[in-house]
Amino acid sequence: MSGSASGHYPAGDLRDQLAHAGRAVVQAGLVMGSGGNLSARVPGADECWVTAAGTWLDRLDRGSFVRIRIRDGAALDNSVGVAPSSELGLHLALYRARPDAGAVIHLHPQAVLLLDALAEPIRLATTDHAFYVRQVATTPFVPPGRPEVGQLAAAACADGVNCVVLSRHGCSVIADSVELAHKRAVNLEEAARLTYSALALGRPLPVLPTDWLQGPGATA
């Protein structure tokens, strides 16, 4: 997969980009092995590639993905007969709610989930956090795999929120590209880690002013 050695995202096939992201999030400790799933929308088509059920995110290749029609969830050209992730409904609900979404990264990051369990909001501590994350929504707990997981996440993101915490489950991050979704996921977990560190020191982080994000050129 060209480009991965230099740190740049691979050009071309979306599955190569998703595999690159999968290795990176595992190496960064954002997820343990198979604790998450990834997808990317095929540009100009009612289709997306989504990780197959049970895949390890740091061991993905082009055969680790299933091509799915977004409008009805039908598998397309699945000659190898692999099943899509059990969280397929989550990905499809987000794509249907957000036509601008080109990628969905769903992970189970420890700091994000620890703060959720403690009922503590994630504070955006740096300008990078504010630029990439901007706002974090939280949905009530629903057992993984149920249709309500996707329905609640889609409702939370419908007005432009790109990062949603699924209570006691994980987070879902959306963007117009795999690379941007990856950056948002990294910054969300870093913000959660810094929030927890501040709480452990007895010094809750103050709210970061974000008015500057509304200025010219402030898009992520």
TrEMBL record:
InterPro entries: Aldolase_class_II_sugar_metab (IPR050197), Aldolase_II/adducin_N (IPR001303), Aldolase_II/adducin_N_sf (IPR036409). GO terms for biological process: pentose catabolic process. It comes from Dactylosporangium matsuzakiense. This is Aldolase. Signal peptide: none annotated. GO terms for molecular function: aldehyde-lyase activity; metal ion binding. The keyword Endoplasmic reticulum does not apply. Keywords: Lyase, Metal-binding. SUPFAM superfamilies: AraD/HMP-PK domain-like (SSF53639). PANTHER family: 3-OXO-TETRONATE 4-PHOSPHATE DECARBOXYLASE-RELATED, FUCULOSE PHOSPHATE ALDOLASE. Residues 16-196 form the Class II aldolase/adducin N-terminal domain. It comes from the Bacteria. Coiled coil: none annotated. Pfam families: Aldolase_II. GO terms for cellular component: cytosol.
